[in-house]
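In this supplementary section we document a worked example of the pipeline. Step one takes a protein sequence of length 550 as its only input; no multiple sequence alignment statistics are reported here. Step two produces a three-dimensional model, which step three serialises into structure tokens for compact storage. The input and output of this example are shown verbatim.
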Amino acid sequence: MIKSLYIKDYAIIEELNIDFKNGLNIFLGETGSGKSIIIGAIDLLRGSRGDTSLIRKGADKALLEASFELNDHFKKTLADAEIDYDDELIVSRTIGEKSTIRVNGRMVTLNFLRELFDEEIDIHSQKDSQYLFKTANHLKLLDTFLNDDDLLSAVNESYKRYASLKKSYEDFLNNTPNSDDIDYFRFQIAEIDKAALDPLEEEELLKLEKKIKNYEREYNHLHNALAYYNEEKGIKESLYEAIRELEGLDDETELLEKLYNHHYELEDLFGKIEDQLASLDLSEERIDEIQDRLFEINKLKRKYHTDIEGILRYKDELLEKIKAFDERETYLAEFESKVEAALNGYMKEADLLSKKRKETALKLKEAIIKEVSDLELKYFDFAVAFKRSELSASGYDDVIFMISTNKGEELKPLNKVASGGETSRILLGLKSIFSRLMKISLAIFDEIDTGISGKAAGAVGLKMAKISQDMQVLAITHSPAVAAYGDHFYEVVKETFSDKTTTSIIPLAKDKTVEVLAVMIASDISDNSLLMAKELLNKAQSIKDEYAGK
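The serialised model returned by step three reads:
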């Protein structure tokens, strides 16, 4: 849910800071007061495109910032992008000569913002056809209602197996090698076999090559160190002479013992240096062998444009091609059998999915008719039309939502039938099901009551109140019958001064809400309009509480 929204120098808004609450938030105000500007700001913060025409006159940039309650989708998306988060999500967007988008202080792209709010915020207006009108989305919506991820995944995986085998089979048919190709394949196999490639050998050779590069430097240092110890008048001989001199004294036993100890320690130490020097004993012949072998390996790696593992895999592929050439008929029969088995496996899963979809379509029909009938469309009918399509990872079903709004009228595609107020109510009924299933966290309804009056308006208000039990709802309305079902009320006020026009939003207490509803009902405030507004509000709240079980 959205927790707060800050706007500065956007459209006709000079500066605005508003806190939102859970439930149904109703925005009231005169036409042109700027209610839809608030929705536009939220739309920009979820990733819609903006330009400098949105900046308030006289300002050089517009600033939009909102905080959102964290949920699992937000946390995962932020973690994947390595963006820190604490207890909320803060999105800010600056529109100007240099526009920027930041999420929790980190600069991000417009595409990232769209990914972040993908299926989190749904904005519904009279002008917007919405995702429900797009027939390409109908199969996904039906599968959302089906709610069987295991079956959908099984169909997806079995299709991948079938498609992969089918492609390999077609590639084999279209790219069959001739006898000259086979001769060349055999030549390459012989070349690779002769090289007797082994990744472990290469690893050892590279270590030796590195050792060779350091050989001369290490050899000289170790050899010189030993020379200082062993040469005439070197450390060893000088120490021995010193010991002989001390042996002629009677009272230097302790000192002599220490010299003996150092003598033996030095012998041990330089013995280790001798061993290390001996380990560097690489003959010129061995060095040449190492370098020649590495040259041979690198030559093949350059020729085949891959490493040793890749060359060995390529050899296996060549052997398979030769086998397929030599045993073509048998190979084709085996291939066709594998493809057929994969297709049968896929069709089994796809048939089961199609059957379950058709069963689910009947349940969806029943649920949608109930939801839409609540909105004073008693002759509304709904069905899911199935058509066989090409095989795909989602099965072989192509579906279209079909509706009828009048008694005796045949079913037609959803986007071909509904009009004005019917459109709003039908979409509202459908969204009361799908928005919850898609786990949308914020639903926004922008003047969807246009063209609706009487009992239908009250039904729309109650339906939005029901939807707000599962997600936060913001609604702009001109209908007092719709507004009366709100949990929280805000008045959008436009003020005109000598040099500017600006919009503000005022949270309304209950008595003030009654006054605003009274004006909506009778265009002015009177004892009669206040009484009507109070009765309307109390009745709506009572109906809403009864639904909520309070």
